[in-house]
Amino acid sequence: MPEALFPPPSTVWRVALPLPLPRLFDYLPPASQADGDAAVGHRVRVPFGRRELVGVVAEVGAPEYEADPAALKTALGRIDADPLLHGELFDSLRWLARYTHAPLGEVLATALPGPLRHGEPLPDTHAWAWCLTEAGRTDREGLRAGRPRRLADLLQDAPLDEDRLDEALDDWRSAARALAKRGLAERIAVPASAHAPAPRPGPALNEEQQDAVDTVLAADGFVPFLLDGVTGSGKTEVYLHAIADCLARGKQALVLVPEIGLTPQTLARFRARLGVPIHALHSGLSDGERARTWAAFARGEARVAVGTRSAVFLPLLQPGLIVIDEEHDGSFKQQDGIRYHARDFALVRAKALNIPILLGSATPSLESLRNVQAGRYGHLRLQRRAGQAQAPQVRVVDVRKRPIEAGLSPELVDAIAQGLHAGGQVLVFKNRRGYAPVLLCHDCGWTAHCPRCSTPLKGTPMTVHGGGRRLQCHHCGTRRPAPNACPDCGGLALQSQGAGTERIEESLSARFPDYPVRRIDRGTTQRRDALEQHLAEFGTAPGILVGTQMLAKGHDLPNLTLVAVVGIDEGLFSADFRAPEKLAQLLIQVAGRAGRADKLGQVLLQTHHPEHPLLHTLLTGGYAAFAETELAQREAADFPPFAHMALLRAEAQDVDVANAFLAKARRELDAFADPRRRPAPGQRPALEINGPLPAPMPRRAGYQRAQLILTALERRHLHAALDAALPAIYACPEARKVRWSLDVDPIDL
Ligand code: ADP
Ligand code: ZN
Ligand code: ZN
């Protein structure tokens, strides 16, 4: 009777492991009492093959996933005394796993900082301080003059944090050791948030700002707001007031900003105004620092986090408010691994936490504007610039049939000269870095293409860099020296075609030798704080900034009076249905940099397409008019936000292999299309599948890339088909031969 000899275990841990398999893994609890009782949310160590993995108990119950209970392995033990993940955060992460159709274990691995993911204990979050002992207080007066005495005097009234001591006394550590040895002082752990500057008041709010703040403060429970305010209208002031109120009620606030918006200035502004420590989370931190911040929130010690995308995974024990600044920004969407959208996940969390959420932008995403239209979000508008600043004047410069040198028309150069002579600063915006986009042989027509990205049908030009000496592919990073002679015809007439930021910089430096010209793009500005440093060094004296969209953000340039936008024409004719939205947002953001203080700003748009409807609508009606038109077009064409998309991507060395996988996936998805939902003639099906199609970049870094596009008018049809088909897609033999990924709500197709 094998059952009696091997009774099926009554309880197993169903563990989420960081593996690309859409399931949990059953383990027997270890026999020892201390390790043996794990609950949902505990981290545990388990054997897996020959490895040892760290996972999280997702369920406790009867075995479900192993076919043969006798083959169950025993877990090695739990890691924490208490579950690390619980409550709202764990529930929301489970939701995210279902929504992205990703394995829970991989979602958890994305959400947790590295050290926690790898099983390290929740780190200490306290700071250290020094204080006098009883004996120290009595004997202080008797100490000889010297450093120990000075330290004892400093500690006379209250303990001091070690960072305070660093500022107050050189080499205080040896003095502290001397006092400690004699039993006069001791080191104590204090909460990390022990001291912070006293809050400083900001400017008095104007009427629009006050209305917005009042509306947010009156919100009870989950209410999403779109704070739709032109650049410089004082949105950040509205956030600060709402957060201050939240702190006064003893609650925590989470602020998400795009990577480029998280500058030391932003943090200093929040710190100074709120008077509490601000926890910053961004890509420049070490894993250890991230884990400490996570722990400070998990313990409920921290009050305010300002962070980029991944800060959306912080635990909030006393939640009060979530703010998403620049909510339209594409950097909130993770583009590899678990493809989540931090704004959308923040909305899910705000709902689960039952708190208000404030989405701010001068150029809101069409998704958010649609939610306003549909009555799902409150709409708060700031239509005037705060303080003295006025909106800039915008003018189109028609360059058809005009001579253009290094990308600049004579009109533009004249305007730049005038701006400089009047004592102002000028920003020249060109969204293409490098010297020139193409290297061309004037004799035979050869152009330099990337060997790893191009196909015979679709060439991918390499960008010219280094003043014409180097070639670089902006898609895969391949570099090579520029040839001296044409590889095809041997001719010497190689020419750089068009202009990137480098060439514009060169040309402007030659034309305006008396003024500083500074280039800001990924070539010059790789380090996190490099942008702020460049802008600080640029100062306020007359001069020219040349750069890419990096320049759309960064700290205020009060003396910037002219913004010249060149080379937006590529964006006007892109195949991507989101291209007009991205271009309009970029133009408004860049234009918004002009005239931020008391100086009137001017914006010049140089184009070959002055009659283009996008430019026309934007210039006559502003972003709101553009968005309205664009939403109507999306609706007519059944594009998001009126339909819901998912993208199944595959890449392989051989295009047939990628396509075979996608064809198999398509058959699985087709099989689950509900026959009762077959569309009547002329109607759209519940789920439309297109592909396998070549990706917009059909070959990149030597890989052939293809995709399936899934579109549904109702989200549930999309998810139902994916839920039904994915197990077979994961399991099929074709899947093992490709790199594949699923992207729900892709932002570029
Ligand atoms: P946004 O976030 O909308 O770009 P900010 O909040 O950064 O705008 O404000 C832009 C500038 O205007 C800042 O220098 C800010 O200090 C100032 N400002 C904001 N609100 C007011 C106000 N009510 N009165 C005077 N100045 C203000
Ligand atoms: Zn040639
Ligand atoms: Zn390439």
UniProtKB/TrEMBL annotation:
GO cellular component, one term: primosome complex
Name of the top EC class for this enzyme: isomerase
SUPFAM superfamilies for this protein: P-loop containing nucleoside triphosphate hydrolases
Coiled-coil region(s): none
Region annotation (Disordered) ranges: 672-696
Binding site for Zn(2+) 2: 450, 453, 473, 476
EC number(s) on file: 5.6.2.4
Domain Helicase ATP-binding: residue ranges: 216-382
Pfam family of the protein (one): PriA_3primeBD
Catalytic activity: Couples ATP hydrolysis with the unwinding of duplex DNA by translocating in the 3'-5' direction; ATP + H2O = ADP + phosphate + H(+)
Matches recorded under InterPro entries: DEAD/DEAH_box_helicase_dom (IPR011545), Helicase_ATP-bd (IPR014001), Helicase_C-like (IPR001650), P-loop_NTPase (IPR027417), PriA (IPR005259), PriA_3primeBD (IPR041222), PriA_3primeBD_sf (IPR042115), PriA_C (IPR041236)
The record's free-text note on cofactor binding: Binds 2 zinc ions per subunit.
Keyword annotations of the record: ATP-binding, DNA replication, DNA-binding, Helicase, Hydrolase, Isomerase, Metal-binding, Nucleotide-binding, Primosome, Zinc
Gene Ontology biological process terms from the UniProt entry: DNA recombination; DNA replication initiation; DNA replication, synthesis of primer; double-strand break repair
TM spans (from-to): none
Highest taxon of source: Bacteria
Cofactor(s) listed in the protein's UniProt record: Zn(2+)
Family: Belongs to the helicase family. PriA subfamily.
Matching NCBIfam families: priA, PRK05580.1-4
Role this protein plays: Initiates the restart of stalled replication forks, which reloads the replicative helicase on sites other than the origin of replication. Recognizes and binds to abandoned replication forks and remodels them to uncover a helicase loading site. Promotes assembly of the primosome at these replication forks.
Protein name stated in the entry: Replication restart protein PriA
Source organism per UniProt: Lysobacter antibioticus
